[in-house]
Specification:
431 residues, Lyase, Ornithine Decarboxylase, Chain A, domain 1, eight-stranded parallel β-barrel, binds ligand LLP
C-alpha cells in the first residue's frame, strides 16, 4: 500500500498526520473517514503556485462535488482557491461556511429556478450557463432584481477522455453544455444582444475525470482559444476567462501513473501561451477545477474487520463494517483501491482475500483481489485514496448511518462531520 501525504509507520502502526490510526478508532469508532489536512493544503498550494494564480491572475476552483463540508470550505477559502458548486445544497454549504460568494462558480445542467434565484441572491461570481432554459431564467430574475450577472457558457468541445481512453469524436451527445458544431453556441451568444442583465465573460468545458493523459487537455486548450478568436471576430466580444474544467487523474493502485500537479499545470499554461501566440490573441485568464486531485489521496477509510469466510480453493471473504454505502465507487465503476491493516503494518502480506462490505448486495465488494497480512476479526482495515467521491456519494442504503469524518494534522485530530445515528437516519420519516 502506498503511503500518501503525511502517513508514516511507527511501532507497526499506521499514523496519519502524526496521529495513530488505532487512537482514532478508539476515539471515534469505525467506519471512519480520516483526512490529512496537510496534504489537502499542500495540493491547494501546488495548484496556486504552478497554475500561476498570483502571477497571471489565473484561478483554481476546487470542485466541491469531490468532498465538501463546512470545514473543507474553510480550508479552500484559507488557501485562496475558488469553489465550483453544482447544486443548491453545495451552494448552501459554501454560504454557511462563510465562503466568499464572488469566488463561487455555479455549475449544473439543470439548475432549478429556486437554485438560480438562490445563486443570484447570494451573489455567486459566475454562473456556468449550460443551456437556453437557464439563460432565459437568469435574465428574467436579474431583470427583476436590476442586477447584471457574469456568466460563462459551457460548451461540448467534442473531446471525451476517461482514464486511458481518449476520443475525439466531435460528439454532440452529451447532456452538458452548448453544442459547438450545430451552431447552438452562436445562437446563445446572439440571444445576449437583447439580454441586458447578463454579461458573457468566458467559456467553460470539462472533458472527463481521472485522466492521466495530457493530450486531450492540449486539444481542449486549442479549441477554446480558437473560439475566443472566432467570437471576437464574429461578435466583437472579448472573452477574458477560459475555464478548462477538472479531471486530473490520481493514484489509487499501482496501475495508475498520474502526472504531477506541477507538470499538468505547466503543460496547460505553456500550450495556452503557444496557441494564443500562434493565432494572435492575448492569453485569457485560465481557470481549472480540480476536485479529485486535491482531496482523493488525502482521505482514507478505517473499518473494523468482522466475519472472515474462507471457501477453500475458491476465495476468502473478509467483511468490514461499511461498504458501498460509504464508497460506491468499486460497485459503480469497478474502481480499484489499496488496503492494509493499520495495527499490523510491518507484517508481510501473504494472503489474497476479497474485501466485502456489509450491504445486502452481492456486488458490495470493496476490493476483489487484496493482498493482506494474517488478519483476524477485530483488526482495523484501511482503504486509501477514498477522499474524493466517497463521503460525497455516501448513502443510507440498508439504513446504514453515514460514518464520521475526522481531519488530522500535526498530531491533532478534529471531528468535522459527526457520525449519523439511527434517529437521524429516520429523521425525515412520518407516521
Ligand atoms: N468540473 C466539472 C464541470 C466537473 O463535472 C467535474 C467532475 C470536475 C470539475 C471535477 O473533476 P475531478 O477533478 O474531480 O475529476 N463520481 C465520479 C467522478 C464524477 C466527476 C464529475 N465531474 C468518480 O467517483 O469517479
Amino acid at each position: 500500500m502506498k503511503l500518501h501525504g503525511n502517513m508514516s509507520i511507527r511501532n507497526n502502526t499506521l499514523y496519519i498526520g502524526g496521529v495513530s490510526c488505532t487512537e482514532l478508532v478508539n476515539k471515534y469508532s469505525t467506519p471512519l473517514y480520516v483526512f490529512d489536512e496537510g496534504l489537502i493544503r499542500e495540493n491547494c498550494r501546488k495548484y496556486n503556485k504552478y497554475f500561476k494564480v498570483e502571477e497571471n491572475k489565473n484561478k483554481v476552483a476546487y470542485a466541491g462535488k469531490a468532498f465538501l463540508t463546512l470545514y473543507m470550505c474553510k480550508i479552500i477559502k484559507e488557501e485562496n482557491l475558488c469553489l465550483d458548486v453544482v447544486s443548491g445544497g453545495e451552494l448552501y454549504t459554501a454560504h454557511k461556511a462563510g465562503f466568499p460568494m464572488e469566488n463561487v462558480l455555479f455549475h449544473g445542467n439543470n439548475k432549478t429556478i429556486d437554485e438560480i434565484n438562490m445563486g443570484i441572491e447570494l451573489g455567486v461570481g459566475r454562473f456556468v450557463v449550460d443551456n437556453f432554459y437557464e439563460l432565459d431564467i437568469i435574465e428574467d430574475i436579474c431583470k427583476k432584481r436590476n442586477k447584471v450577472q457574469e456568466i460563462y457558457f459551457r460548451i461540448t468541445p467534442g473531446i471525451e477522455a476517461h482514464t486511458h481512453d481518449y476520443i475525439k469524436t466531435g460528439q454532440i451527445d452529451s447532456k452538458f453544455g452548448f453544442v459547438l458544431i450545430n451552431g447552438d453556441l452562436y445562437e446563445a451568444i446572439e440571444k445576449l444582444y437583447k439580454y441586458k442583465n447578463i454579461k458573457l465573460v468566458g467559456l467553460h468545458a470539462h472533458i472527463g475525470s481521472q485522466i492521466f493523459d495530457i493530450e486531450p487537455y492540449m486539444d481542449e486548450v486549442d479549441i477554446m482559444m480558437d473560439l475566443v478568436k472566432e467570437i471576437k471576430i464574429k461578435y466583437n466580444i472579448d472573452l477574458k476567462e477560459i475555464d478548462l474544467g477538472g479531471g486530473i487523474g490520481v493514484y489509487y493502485t499501482k496501475e495508475d501513473n498520474p502526472k504531477s500537479i506541477q507538470d499538468f499545470c505547466e503543460a496547460i499554461i505553456k500550450r495556452a501561451e503557444q496557441k494564443c501566440k500562434k493565432i494572435g490573441i492575448k492569453v485569457p485568464k485560465l481557470i481549472i477545477e480540480p476536485g479529485r486531485s486535491i482531496s482523493a489521496n488525502a482521505g482514507s477509510t478505517l473499518y473494523t474487520i468482522g466475519s472472515i469466510k474462507d471457501i477453500k480453493d475458491v476465495r476468502t471473504y473478509v467483511s468490514v463494517d461499511g461498504g458501498m454505502t460509504d464508497n460506491i465507487r468499486p460497485s459503480l465503476y469497478k474502481a480499484g483501491y489499496e488496503c492494509s491493516v493499520v495495527n499490523k503494518m510491518k507484517y508481510e502480506k501473504v494472503n489474497k482475500v476479497t474485501v466485502a462490505g456489509k450491504c445486502c448486495e452481492s456486488g458490495d465488494i470493496l476490493i476483489t483481489h487484496a493482498n493482506v497480512m494474517d488478519i483476524e476479526s477485530g483488526d482495523i482495515l484501511i482503504t486509501t485514496s477514498t477522499g474524493a467521491y466517497g463521503y460525497s456519494m455516501a448513502s443510507n442504503y440498508n439504513k446504514i448511518p453515514k460514518p464520521a469524518v475526522v481531519m488530522v494534522s500535526n498530531g491533532n485530530h478534529r471531528l468535522i462531520c459527526k457520525r449519523q445515528n439511527y434517529e437521524e437516519v429516520i429523521n425525515l420519516e412520518l407516521i
